[in-house]
Amino acid sequence: MTAATHSTLFPRVPESADAVLDGLDPEQREVALAVNGPVCVLAGAGTGKTRAITHRIAYGVRAGILQPTTVLAVTFTNRAAGEMRGRLRQLGATGVQARTFHSAALRQLQYFWPKAVGGELPRLLERKVQLVAEAAARCGIRLDRNELRDATSEIEWAKVTQTVPADYPAAVAKTLRDAPRDPAELAQIYSTYEQLKRDRSVIDFEDVLLLTVGILQDRHDIADHVRRQYQHFVVDEYQDVSPLQQRLLDLWLGDRDDLCVVGDASQTIYSFTGATPEHLLNFRTRHPQATVVKLVRDYRSTPQVVHLANGLLSQAHGRAAEHRLELVSQRDKGPEPVYTEYQDEPAEAEGTARRIRDLIAAGVPAGEIAVLFRVNSQSEVYEQALADAGVPYQLRGAERFFDRAEVREAGVALRGAARAGGNDPLLDGADDLPAEVRAVLSTKGWTTTPPTGSGAARDRWESLAALVRLAEDFERAKPGATLSDLVAELDERAAAQHAPTVQGVTLASLHSAKGLEWDAVFLVGMTEGMMPIAYARTDEQVEEERRLLYVGVTRARFHLSLSWALSRSPGGRSSRRPTRFLNGLRPGSTALGTRGGTGGGGGIDRGTAAGRGTAGGGREDRPRRRGPVRCRVCGRTLTGAGEMKLMRCEDCPSDMDEGLYERLREWRAARAQETRQPAWCVFTDKTLMAIAEAAPDTESELVVIPGVGNRKLTRFGADVLAICAGRTVGDEDPGGGLDG
Hints:
The protein has 28 helices and 17 strands. With 740 residues, the protein is of the alpha/beta class. The protein folds into 5 domains: 18-114 and 210-293, P-loop containing nucleotide triphosphate hydrolases (Rossmann fold), CATH 3.40.50; 123-200; 338-400 and 503-582, Rossmann fold; 401-496, no CATH class; 641-725, Orthogonal Bundle (DNA polymerase, domain 1). β6, α12 (243-253) and β7 form a beta-alpha-beta unit. α6 (129-138) crosses α9 (183-200). The radius of gyration is 29 Å and the shape is globular. The two termini are 43 Å apart. One of its GO terms (cellular component) is DNA helicase complex. GO terms for molecular function: 3'-5' DNA helicase activity; ATP binding; ATP hydrolysis activity; DNA binding. ATP binds at residues 43-50. Residues 654-734 form the HRDC domain.
């Protein structure tokens, strides 16, 4: 056995079911022990949700409660499914199926197709773009490459929301969706695409789910077969489930409720693909007896990062905001987030690159640093700034700027115009280099104003606009430069980007950063029009942008920087404003006011037959914290677990009665001995300190102290109030339980 076997990469398999529970915090342990029945885990960013649900499965398997082959764990990416399988193996729970929705459905479809339909399953269409192009051509509609991508995305959205071609225009109007072109045309393309698939006996990835749903609905014998095979279900990232995926899950379950779902409505950022948090928020309504556990202990980020994340959500509104989770950092204090205003975008990129270079010099690995932006077109200026600073980088979730199809096409057009020189009529009337570039790129889709809406057309325009800005900057730096000079500059930049960038700083969009984390995160371009994006017009669209920023903030473990530029280019008009989402949070800004939600800390709600509220709600008889918890001495928002217990900052002066504190400690030790449990299971030190500081006289004063709550008030309230009043403690039943 090598030394590596005992490393963190190769941990020892727990020796028993009880050993599986070692190292879990109280709420994670509750998740692991809630093996049967409907369970809803509301898990904030960085709270160890994957750890909790894998230990739940492993504990059930190791304790003999669950048969591994009857468990199906479903998530949304192959990476996440692979990680889950790896963790289950490390915990000694082999044989459990951990798959994506599509992978699980495809296996069932392949197995049951000969019995349900006959013959072989139709060929799976790996890429539908070519067939969409043919469908458009048959409809007499000409689409370029980017428009094809948009049309394909619309077809995918329609199918996962179970919208047929005839209903597509009405669905677009009802949902206020920004269709990339006329909905009637898209409906026609969609209908023709479906016909072409039938004619050629092929299916796409959405059909895998649709056909599996159809077979399970129509063939009760097959549905019974599947339900005998899989009896226990776990669904991760439940806030991202589409209506079609939920329908498939319902059919897998049948009339059973042995289901555990995990999610966070505040991280719903994919509604444009059909994802909706409604299934998560309505879980308690559908399953009144569900156990609901909130995970709010954030092990990823420092209190300073968590404070900003909580502040962002405290200003949110809408149904998801009503059930937000208020995170409590479990890490030591770190640096405050840095807010930086720059005069223009190049200055912002250069300043960011300098700060990154300083962090690397201070010992932060380049691979533990990320620059996150709203749209992929923002990457070019940061690619260049990092290259100029000698900092390696890598792009995630996007092509390199100079590898993008529209940029390559633009380069060919500019090179041709440069060779033609004055003989190109396209350049007639262009009196400087930027004007020449604008004239050439106008043939490739660049216009003076950006297209409305999102999607490929907007991304293409942003890429071309970046080339126009580059030409303007190049002219400003080198007056009299020619189109040939600019082409040479573009070639040099493209060549420089092909250098190895292994273990480099990550450049990524906020969407592609979901599920990842770094020691240092730079959130750039934080201006109105970019965050929230300009085409976010409805309240719900704006709120999704806020959640997107929240996801970005919670990617940071230690260092967090937010920046914005007042103008696009040097010397430009300083007309931009920092994002509204930072109002009241960044220094010198004014708060817009907070909005309440259930929020509050972690805990467990075991449910009743009547059902109390929705999945986001806690116990009806438990006091709920609404909005940020503030220091009762200085008024600062508290984020640390200990500070929130004390209701004050650690370094603010204490008015604790030392004698009362010691009497409470002596009483706690006696109770712990009687109940044969650790002293902290009665009350933690911080809760005792908070009681000694408050010296409550009544039950209403005692119950609101964090760590008490109604359960402990019933069991220990008489004793504690007697001690606070200086009376002799009676012989009441000591009770027990976890510190709430």
